[in-house]
Specification:
By secondary structure, this protein is of the alpha/beta class. The protein has helices spanning about 35-40, 50-70, 75-80, 85-100, 105-120, 125-155, 180-190, 210-220, 230-240, 265-270, 305, 350-355, and strands at about 5-10, 15, 30, 165, 195-200, 225, 245, 250, 255-260, 275-280, 285, 310, 310-315, 325-330, 335-340, 340-345. The protein contains 12 helices and 16 strands.
Length: about 350
């Protein structure tokens, strides 16, 4: 696999590959403060549920470094340092991060990993707190790569030789710490020597498919054909597609899946045409606190994302537009969840309970 590095931490700043500029330009945005990270998340410099979790973790490290910085230079640092005050500031910073993208649960998961670690360090010196928190964020990064590779191993078992796979949005290296969930499955099958071809739908309005997924697959020499979103049904009905694989931004306790807008449409088409519909996601994407997809908050983004494209108007001035970023696919349309702990066929509430036990 050719190296794709969407997130780079150098100890004092976070560098994010600007996904708004791909595929024309490969440029990093350097974040030195929590506010920089929040802005990058809001403006989709970085996107994809696992990547948001990793980014949020490092965002809190930047916040912690700012809060603690002055104390680590003192000889009697413990006496001058107030842990309750520090923790309150860190909790507040975490809450503001969670608000940037409400649908993707990994963002909140990454924040909570760092906050829980901090809570366990109330007796430690400030310098040790910083060191331990940074180690936790690095662990989240490393675990994401490892988990994605396990997802790829399991998912590749479902991919036969000469398969044509349809994927939606971008659930690849760019959406994670650097490997991918749905594209991790495709990558693993390809590197196993299977002859595969991938239909990549453009994924309006942000064009994650045509700009990002196509870019990733092309870099690695994986055969692909780009299609417009509306052509998916045509190819599925013709029998051109052996299976559909997507990622997820949040999975409810009953197996309902929140993912990029247009996912539900593909799931319905898959059901109608007897094509397997697979969701590849880490266990951290499962949110057992929501009973079903009806409880998941769906982010509504700026209408200008669909009325304009990079400053060029695509519709009449002043037109009303709706721009939900995600939709909900009911569990009964999901053939299987592919996770780092295995493949869960036909998810339901009881099976989901058994699955999440494996992450403890």
């Amino acid at each position: 696999m050719e190296g794709i590095y969407p997130i780079i931490w150098d100890g004092t700043s976070l560098k994010l590959l600007d996904q708004r500029l791909l595929p024309e330009v490969e440029r990093y945005v350097e974040c030195q403060t929590l506010e920089d990270v929040k802005e990058c998340i809001k403006k989709m410099v970085v996107r994809g549920a696992p990547a948001l979790g990793v980014t949020a973790a490092f965002g809190l490290i930047l916040a912690a470094q700012k809060f603690i910085g002055d104390f680590t230079q003192l000889e009697e640092e413990q006496e001058a340092f107030s842990f309750p005050e520090f923790q309150a500031k860190l909790e507040s910073a975490g809450n503001t991060l969670k608000e940037t993208r409400p649908t993707a649960v990994n963002l909140s998961w990454g924040v909570e990993r760092i906050l829980n670690k901090s809570r366990s360090l109330k007796e430690a010196l400030p310098s040790l707190i910083i060191k331990e928190l940074e180690q936790e964020a690095n662990a989240i990064f490393d675990e994401d790569i490892s988990v994605n590779k396990k997802i790829g191993e399991w998912g590749a078992k479902l991919i036969g030789d000469n398969y044509t796979i349809l994927t939606h949005c971008n659930a690849g290296a760019l959406a994670t710490a650097g490997y991918g969930t749905a594209l991790g499955v495709i990558r693993r099958a390809f590197y196993q020597g299977k002859k595969i071809m991938v239909y990549v739908d453009e994924t309006r309005p942000f064009l994650q498919g045509s700009r990002l997924t196509a870019w990733e697959l092309q870099k690695e020499g994986i055969p692909l054909s780009l299609i417009v979103d509306g052509a998916a049904g045509y190819h599925i009905h013709k029998g051109d597609v052996n299976c559909i694989i997507v990622g997820a931004d949040r999975i409810a306790a009953n197996g309902d899946v929140a993912n990029k807008i247009g996912t539900y449409t593909l799931a319905v088409l898959a059901k109608e045409n007897n094509v397997p519909f697979y969701v590849a996601a880490p266990l951290s994407t499962i949110d057992m606190s929501v009973n079903s997809g009806k409880e998941i908050v769906v982010e509504e983004r700026d209408p200008e994302e669909i009325t304009n494209l990079r400053g060029l108007p695509l519709s009449p001035p002043g037109i009303n537009a709706k721009n939900p970023a995600f939709d909900i696919t009911p569990a009964n349309l999901v053939t299987a969840l592919i996770t780092e702990c295995g493949i869960l066929n036909f998810p339901n509430e009881e099976k989901m309970k058994q699955l999440v036990q494996k992450r403890r």
